[in-house]
Design brief:
α1 (about 60-75) runs antiparallel to α2 (about 80-100). About 40% of the residues lie in helices and about 35% in strands. A hairpin with a 2-residue loop joins β6 (about 100-110) and β7. By secondary structure, the chain is an alpha+beta fold. The protein has two domains: about 10-50 and about 120-135, no CATH class; about 60-100.
Length: about 140
């Protein structure tokens, strides 16, 4: 990804960790660039109508995880391996349900684009604040 001569970087956000350049978003004075995997998308600031963040916890995943963990606890005496496996899987499901997902929604004239990040990330919120200040 190259920036034009008259383009300056305003803010950046790494989706999967610090300096992971294959999963990042860059705000310049002219556009919003989203890079993920082998793809790169560029959204001109003048075409973006709104940027929204939606945070969602999965109650279904939490409940199913707790049920599986309880079944695993009940099975530990009869079959320790199956019991511990059930407890681990149920605990992981409950954890990811509680951690939730943040959906980044970019609305523009040609349609909407959504990106998902696990958890509620303060750096993403700050990045979106920078984008919104550029839009207004």
């Amino acid at each position: 990804m190259k920036l034009a001569d008259d383009e300056t970087k305003v803010a950046e956000y790494y989706f999967k960790g610090l300096n992971d350049v294959s999963n990042m978003s860059i705000l310049t004075n002219r556009r919003l660039i989203v890079i993920y995997g082998n793809a790169e998308e560029s959204f001109p600031i003048s075409k973006i109508t709104a940027i929204r963040l939606l945070f969602h916890r999965s109650m279904t995943m939490i409940i199913i995880g707790i049920i599986i963990a309880l079944i695993g606890i009940a099975l530990i005496k009869g079959s320790p391996v199956v019991g511990i496996l059930g407890l681990a899987i149920g605990g992981a499901m409950a954890y990811f349900g509680i951690k939730g997902k943040t959906h980044l929604l970019i609305q523009q004239m040609g349609g909407d684009k959504k990106y998902v990040v696990r958890g509620k990330d303060q750096k993403l919120i700050e990045f979106i604040d920078a984008v919104n200040s550029k839009l207004s």
